[in-house]
Amino acid sequence: MISLTNATLMRGELTLLQNASLSIHNGQKIGVIGRNGSGKSSLFACLLGQLALDKGELSIPDGMRCAHMKQETVASAVSAVDYVIDGDERYREIERKLHAAEKAEDGAQIAHWHSEMDKIGGYDIRYRAMQLLSGLGFGADEFDNAVSTFSGGWRIRLNLAAALMAPSDLLLLDEPTNHLDMEATLWLEQWLNRYEGTLLIISHDRSFLDGVISYVVSVEQQRLNLYRGNYSSFELQRAERLAQEQAMFEKQQRRVAEIEDFVRRFRAKATKARQAQSRLKELDRMQQIAPAHIDSPFHFEFPTPDRLPDELIAFDKVSVGYDGAALVSNIRLTVRNTTRIGLLGFNGCGKSTLLRTMAGQLAPVAGEKRESKYLQVGYFAQHQVDVLDQRASPVLLIQRLDPSAREQTVRDFLGGFDFRGERINETIENFSGGEKARLALALVVWQKPNLLLLDEPTNHLDLEMRHALTVALQGFEGALVIVSHDRHLLSNTVDEFYSIHNGRCQEFDGDLHDYEKWMQENSKSGTGTATSAPDEKKGDKKEQRQQAAAQRQQLAPLKNEIKRLEQKLEKLHVELKQVEDKLADATLYEESRKKDLTTLLQKQATLKSECDTVEEQWLEKSEQFESLT
């Protein structure tokens, strides 16, 4: 068992932990969460012996093997596979001693070190290293490439592979999914679920945490609080506690109303019952955990666009790529003002290229691209943080976009992204990666886009900021096309998915769980397609027209029933909102109005029950309609 007792930890004059205690038992898989700067990485440094406590005790069992993921990788001529093998220090030690024994022609020592090599499974270590590299997205032709030939993000993947290669009883991973695509993230989930040691992981990917951990350590007010369950369970536990605080009641009710409004807007344009069912479950859960985020330092929203034309961008047989070579061909896609698309696909398939073409940074290789004259694009690229002027302040960057902006307006706006006080006038060169990412997003929001193109917007963002971004995107009134490996963000902000695979961009008929299954069944070199459209033979045109007419006649009653249920559900939601508006009245909770409160609470419960019943009927009929069409 690892124990931390009455620990105080400081960085300069900043107190990170004070009288904090924690016990970690063998085999526990723990997510370490907390706001940026709260001390999560410093806690890891203490466990690794890189940082000493200012007060208190840290007890780690003798002989415990500890592995961790490095955050920096120096350029070197070592091959990728050898770099990963270097993660197993015991193997390298035995290898050196075996070579020395062979050089000295010492038979006894040669036999001894061969035996030790066999004990640690050293004879198949290269195969195991290649498995790790393959799982994390490296191609077989890259295994022998020098580390110096890889970009920063891929070097971080090498660090992760080296940490997984190291035999360990305790594994510390700090933001392992930051540079992974969805495929590699799912592979890592599976690997960690098989890991038999103790795992501590810092991550801002809530879906990833839910799939791996069974405990949460939350850094709150300089203490370490242990919760049983995954991240979703932690949110519910925290929500229950905060919901009891009367001062939070009005804020909670407003947030619940916002989510319900988003549910209504989504339901009105839902075309696929399977996706609708998945979305409604996610939104129901967001209502439950809303109170857990009421005290978040991030509160912002996208302003209403100045103009919102019906059609923003249209692609007609467009091919996208570089230097005349197409990555994705024959794209037919119209982005309307209500479009909300999540782009899915393996790493390198062309998702970012498609976004760049939409944003006007790349010209189509072929085909026709049409744009509305009122198009206002807000584009967040993967490397947006890197192009910020490091010598500018947050205020200056906003003023460059809008010289006429009032100082107080800018201050209030930046405050929603947790830039407050003199921080807004400081140059950003010393800002953290998370702060720069928040600022880059703020610049996009300020421009009042009617089309948002977001390419991995959550990299470097902590859990609270990711939640705030999800909430803001739900309220965004324009069109959205997003690439992200954050499954929770996708599940809660888009209405449809398009898959890019084998050079084709097609609508994906299913939800994210369906896509995960499909992705695990298809390798990068596979020939499968990520759509479920059947290959139908064309029959006689007259017969097809007759079949279509018969189908319309068969579907008409079902379509009318769906429409009736939607109207009934809309009416129930209006009534429910009226009741909940009344429940937000603080005077209702006075003793003299106890009877009124009871009546309203009963009516609220009845309406919610009716909503659930009608919603189930709507989903059932929609699924029938979908199966017949």
> How do the strands of the widest beta sheet line up side by side?
5-6-7-3-8-9
Low-confidence stretches: 524-539
Helical content class: 40-55%
- Alpha-beta content class: alpha/beta
Strand portion, in percent? 15-25%
Looking at how many chains there are and whether they match, the oligomeric state comes to: single chain
Q: State Rg.
A: 28 Å
Mean pLDDT: 83
Report how far apart the termini are: 58 Å
Largest sheet: 6 strands, mixed
CATH fold field value of the domain at 311-521: Rossmann fold
Could you give the count of β-strands?
A: 18
Describe the structure.
This protein has 629 residues and is α/β, with parallel strands linked by helices. Among the domains are: 245-295 and 543-628, no CATH class; 311-521, Rossmann fold (3-Layer(aba) Sandwich), CATH 3.40.50.300. The protein is 45% helix and 18% strand. The protein is built from 20 helices and 18 strands. It has helices spanning 40-47, 80-85, 89-103, 107-119, 125-135, 152-165, 182-194, 206-212, 231-243, 249-269, 273-289, 351-359, 394-401, 407-415, 433-446, 463-475, 487-493, 512-521, 541-583, 594-628; strands at 2-11, 14-24, 29-33, 55-59, 66-68, 170-174, 198-202, 215-220, 223-228, 311-322, 325-336, 340-344, 366-371, 377-380, 451-455, 479-483, 496-501, 504-508. Strands 5-6-7-3-8-9 form a six-stranded mixed β-sheet, sandwiched between helices. Helix 3 runs antiparallel to helix 4 (107-119), helix 5 packs across helix 6 and helix 13 (394-401) crosses helix 14 (407-415). The termini are far apart.
